[in-house]
Amino acid sequence: MRDFLGIFGKGGKILAEIYLLAALGLAGLYMAWNIGANDLANAMGTVVGTGGLSIRQVIVLAAVFEFLGAVYFGSRVTETIAKGIVPIDRLGELGNPGNLGNGPAGLAGGVGGFPHMLALGMLAAVLAAGFWVTFATFYNLPVSTSHASVGGMLGFGLALAYRGIIPYSLIRWPVLARIVASWLISPVLGAVLAFLLFVLIRTLVLHRVEKDVEKYFVGLQVITACYLAFAHGSNDVAGAVGPLSAAFARLGLIGGEEVPAWLFMLGGVGMVLGLSTWGYRVIETVGSKITELTPSRGFAAQFATASVVLLHSYVSLPISTTHILVGSVIGVGLAGGLSAVDLSVVWKIVFSWIVTVPVAALTSALLFLGFGALGV
Amino acid sequence: MAAKYVRSVIKVFGKPPFLPLEEHSRKAVLAARKLAEALEAYFSGDPETVERLSIELNGIEQEADYIKQQIRAGLSSSVKTPVDPKLLLDFLSEQDCIVNGARNAVYWMKLREYGTSEEREKEGVGGAPLLPSEIKKGFLELVAKVEETVKVYHTLIEKLYKLVSTSFSKPQLKATFALVPEIDRLEHEVDVIESRLMKLIFREQETLRGSGVRHLTELVELIGDLADKAVSAADALQTMVIRR
Fold it and tell me: Which residues make beta-bridge pairs with B80?
């Protein structure tokens, strides 16, 4: 964009800013699309799989509640992504970003100065997360979008530190450790809760009532579908909106304190778009293959998942809905609710934990440093 | 769309073994039916039909084997089922014996032919030995009872899925296992018919000759075996459910 500056002069700077904002917006939408197309769709697929609701009904419910969850409960996790890992809001507070680092802040000398550079970093973080998720989807790896977003943010922080702009100690390692711990704990929590729920359903309902009880759970599917979509929206919107809000705040487009509703709406729209343009196929696939999940089992798994996800939204931790759902399904299975659960998927998930953060971080760092090298 | 370009929760769902088990049991019922038809054709001197049914039975046996392999393949060590997978496979191989038994019986049946009364009139005393109608009747009675046993056994397997879907509720357990004594009773009736038939065969040893007696007594055993296998499979099923 230095070139733009050369060509357009002062007008060029504004133009460059517009380009950057547009790129950020599109990257955010792309990430949101990814989240909606796969994570949300998987969760909703299990609702269709129980046979309680049609695909169309599920998509409408999911769209509404995903959107509501993102807009009304998405801010906590978004804050964590935006400034929890790398305190982007406080970088360069002293006016001269060079003060923060050891050497000359090479990257900070870009067109728009420090905020511009940070915004580029956020662009790199979103793109890195998005690319990895797309790649993983291509190879059917059970990768989490949340993990990828955290990796992207971390990569940006590491790149800053690598260039001596911030010290490594400025990256909030304890927060990162908490997040990673939550990735290990949350699926287990889902499994335990689903296990208990199913044992409760079994002893109180399945073993007591003589006639077909599954039909009572069909009605509950409407509630769990909404609950699950709301919970998902509240946690996963952060992956798309977190980096954007950090960038927009630094560019002065929005206030630094609170993420405005329109940004969450953007994320919500992106996720709903993902659900309706690609996700319905995922719903179809998932729904048609998991006939084992009767409404009572589905209720236990989905209710547990939604509760654990919402709990993590409340404590501002970005977690993977899909992994918790897998944990919950295993919980129902171990409680004797499913005639077969395949635990080999657990190793694939563990593998994805180990791989996702480094890969997304490296991609993000390389993208960011690449932007710098290109003089963007 | 296949599960392509999807990051999905599907993989955590293993291949449920219980519906294929029911399908496998349906093969047993079909095999028992074919055996009964083959026996009828055999006694009315229709070797073509017997041959056709024998080929059909081989096909059924292969289909049953395929289902068995599918179930076994779905039970890798990472797959958790509400019952012990080892006991499930034990039970499955007992059930598989019913199909194999029907095939073996028809195979054995074909090894020797008996003349019909019309042939006897044509060929005189030198033709194949004539089977007394009492023995024929006994065999048909035997195969009918065996078929009934396998059918009742199948209703037990049909209840298994319901049992799993209610996560082994006590009333369902009761309803399912109520069928086991019924199968035992039928098997006992089969035994009674068997021993009566054996006596009949030995009574006719002069006309049937040694090989005829050997052939028919073995055939009685082979047909009766289906009921025994149904009982063993029901027992194995009960063990599997009780020790879950």
Answer: A341
| Confidence band of B86 (pLDDT split at 50, 70, 90) | very high
Q: What is the pLDDT of residues B187-201, one digit of tens each?
A: 999 999 999 999 999
The vertex-B69 CA angle with B19 and B80, nearest 5°, equals: 60
pLDDT of residue B137: 94
d(CA B203, CA B215): 15
Cα distance between residue A309 and residue A331, in whole Å: 16
Write phi, then psi, for A318 (nearest 5 degrees): -80, 115
- Is A136 in Cβ contact with B7 (below 8 Å)? yes
Query: Which residues in B lie closer than 8 A to residue A344 (C-beta atoms)?
Result: 11, 76, 78-79
Asked if residue A352 has pLDDT above 90, the reply is no
- The Cα of A147 is separated from the nearest Cα of chain B by a number of Å equal to 14
Residue A292 distance to chain B (closest CA, Å): 7
Return d(Cα A339, Cα B137) in angstroms, integer: 45
Subunit contact B79:A342, Cβ cutoff 8 A? yes
Which residue range is the domain that position A209 belongs to? 2-373
Q: How confident is the model at residue A213 (pLDDT cuts 50, 70, 90)?
A: confident
Helix (H) or strand (E) holding A341: strand A341-342
Record: contact A329-B12, CB cut-off 8 A: yes
Contact at CB, A281 and B168, closer than 8 angstroms: no
- What residue in B sits closest to A325 (Cα-Cα)? B9
d(CA A338, CA A357): 32
CB pair distance less than 8 Å for B169 and A207:
yes
Would you call A38 and B171 a contact, using CB atoms and an 8 Å cutoff?
Answer: no
* B196 close to B185: Cβ distance less than 8 angstroms: no
* DSSP assignments along A275-318, one per residue: IIIIIHHHHHHHHHH-TT--HHHHHHHHHHHHHHHHHHHHTT--
Report how many domains make up chain A. 1
Short-list A278, A286, A318, CA closest to A138: A278
Tokens representing residue B15 in the block: 């291949």
User: In chain B, what are the domains?
Assistant: 14-242 (1.20.58.220)
d(CA B176, nearest CA chain A) in Å: 14
Chain B hits for A282, CB-CB cut-off 8 Å, are 6, 8
pTM: 0.87
Nearest of B22, B45, B31, B48 to residue B104 by alpha carbon: B31
**Using beta carbons and an 8 Å cutoff, which residues of B are at the interface with A?**
1-18, 74-76, 78-82, 164-171, 244
B101, two tokens: 């038994």
How large is the average pLDDT for residues A187-209?
93
The one-letter amino acid at B192: V
ipTM of the modeled complex: 0.82
Residues of A in contact with B170 (CB under 8 A): 207
What SS3 state is found at B12?
helix
